[in-house]
Amino acid sequence: EMGELNDRFILRFTNEDTLSNSFIPKSELSVYFNMQSSELVIKNPNRLNIKQIKIYDALGKQILLDSNVINDELIFVPVSTPSEGVYIATILDSSSKIIHKKFIIKH
User: Fold this and answer.
1) Which of these, 107, 52, 100, 106, lies nearest to 75 by C-alpha position?
2) What predicted TM-score, i.e. pTM, was given to this entire model?
């Protein structure tokens, strides 16, 4: 059909948090990769109770799952045979909040 269809789409605004994560201030966690020890280092100054850490490569493939996290100000996660590239660390805390942090491995 040719012409204008003015009733085809509806734009609705709601206050629901359907697509959002619980907000965690950026300053609470930081991550970097230590090439000498082949470990992901997570700085956790407020000692969030972290339950799980997952690491994904740039293609979305999960390369690590650590559910035995020792919560401290510095958390060390060994990563075996890391390749150069961009990775995402997905960190789950005890209140089910998810934090995504990007880090780069460069030889």
Assistant:
1) 52
2) 0.72
